[in-house]
Amino acid sequence: MFQNEAKHANFKSICSQGRHRIRWCQARGEAPGTRHSPWNELKLKYLDRFPIQQSERERDHFRITRDLEINMKPLTSPTDNIRVILLAFSCLWLVQAVAPSAGAATYGQQVIAAVLMGEAEGEGERGMIAVAEVIRKRADQKGISPLAIVKEPRQFSCLNGLTPPQLIRKHWRKKDWETALKIARLMYNTPEKLPGITRGATHYATFIPKWARGHQPVAVIGNHYFWRFEDV
Question: What integer pLDDT is reported at residue 2 of this predicted model?
């Protein structure tokens, strides 16, 4: 009993010395968690002196605190700073590689591009331009934005059951995405440069629906028929 009590007192004394060592290291500006600091040397010395009699809880406590102090030292060396800079540039490059067009196009333009691909992806650039002209014509007649036009319920079949962000994620990796974005930017920013191949059409379909019966299409582009109505 006396021997165990003496070892316990010695242990408490070493811990007290360790706390004073930490304050001494902090006063000198030295990180107490460095590999060769007096605090770590003191703890390792204690672990070497009492490897068997020490309890499991005490050994775990010292092992965890030692690992934390060694691994959580501040980044002060030039090598560590270079690693942080390289990591930041790598993250920036990854963001640009994953979404190359996200910074060049607005959200509305991306939604329009996704709608163009969803409605006329198989029609090529000419088919997507025709759909863009219809969207722009409706927006001008109603006095609202093209984004508000495509978000109207049950007007564009590609958005049935999908939200605009979901439609973007569905199409942005495809090869025609950049072409669709170019047409969407043109329709948004300089609509007067659109070629006018639909002759002011406001509606289109791949078949003759009931609402179009008795009306002559103003244009046929690919598999789509286009009609112009004054009331949209």
Answer: 44
Beta strands in the chain (DSSP E): 203-205, 219-221, 224-227
Distance from C-alpha of 227 to C-alpha of 88, rounded to nearest angstrom: 53
In a domain, 218, yes or no: no
Per the domain annotation, does 202 fall within a domain? no
161 within some domain: yes
Report the distance separating Cα 115 and Cα 88, nearest Å: 35
pLDDT of residue 112: 97
Count CB-CB contacts under 10 A for residue 72. Answer: 9
pLDDT tens-place string over residues 120-142: 988 899 999 999 999 999 999 99
Distance from the first to the final alpha carbon of the chain: 97
Domain span at residue 86 reads 76-104
Alpha helices in 99-207 (DSSP H): 107-120, 124-142, 146-150, 164-171, 177-189
- Specify the number of domains making up the chain: 3
How far is residue 105 CA from its own chain's centroid? 16
- Residue type present at position 80: D
What number is the average pLDDT over the span 208-224?
92
Smallest Cα–Cα separation from 128: which of 177, 183, 165? Answer: 183
Q: What is the rounded average pLDDT of the residues 149-154?
A: 93
Q: Give domain status of residue 174, yes or no.
A: yes
CB contact set of 74 (below 8 Å; sequence gap of 6+): 31
